[in-house]
Amino acid sequence: MNKIISLILITFLFYVANAQTPKLKNGVIQVNSAEFKKLIKDNKGTFLDVRTKSEYSAEHIKNAGQLNYYALDFKKKLLLLPKDQPIYLYCNTGYRSKKAGEILAKNGYTNIFNLEHGIMEWNLKELPVVEGDKSMLIKENAMNVDGFKKLIASGKPIFFDFYAPWCGPCRKMMPMMDSLKTEYHGKIKIVKVNSDVSKKLIKELKLMGVPYLVFYKNNKKLFERSGTATRQELISQFKKRRNYN
Fold this sequence. Notes:
Blueprint: H1 2-17, E1 23-25, E2 28-31, H2 33-42, E3 46-49, H3 53-58, E4 59-60, E5 65-66, H4 74-78, E6 87-90, H5 95-106, E7 112-115, H6 118-124, E8 130-131, H7 135-140, H8 145-152, E9 158-163, H9 168-183, E10 189-194, H10 199-205, E11 212-217, E12 220-226, H11 231-240
Parallel strand pairs: 2-7, 3-5, 3-6, 6-7, 9-10
Antiparallel strand pairs: 1-2, 4-8, 9-11, 11-12
């Protein structure tokens, strides 16, 4: 108990010293890149990247461990973390790590910090990362014609997000798509398709640009959009097909 009180006091003094008010949401302290950098440098604790292995291998913040939010045993492994020290979490956009932090908070953990806008903001601020093999990440988002046809004929609801790494509107939608993928995990399969490495499929579909969003079930196209869409627009489309399975 004394250790926990001490850690909370350290957190409070950190923010007082930096004239900042912590954003406490559902038991998780949301911080920006500059604050996160100082915290992971100055304090001992558990530092965790909750993205997939391929995302982590492509690039990650130095000294971060890795635990895949989408893994079936994620919650079980997450709750093995010690409760008597701070926990620092991040992902691509901040959404998965926020949800991970909320799981911890609901299970009695305190002193949980989340990089609010993820490694995307970290990169925008040109903060250092450990760069690795990006080939697996590219391969993960590649889609061939046969794979696409197999998915849309599977009988399950499949939502495709066709994007390109250089596409500004695509990048702006990434946090939203990340949150929807988490929220509808197990209900709707949301698939990201990198158009730059899926040329044959792009040609087959006669796509003229990205972003391109399309929703299928049983080979039937339920919705499509060339260009951006709002979160509410997509949720509305999902709700129209309540019988997901």
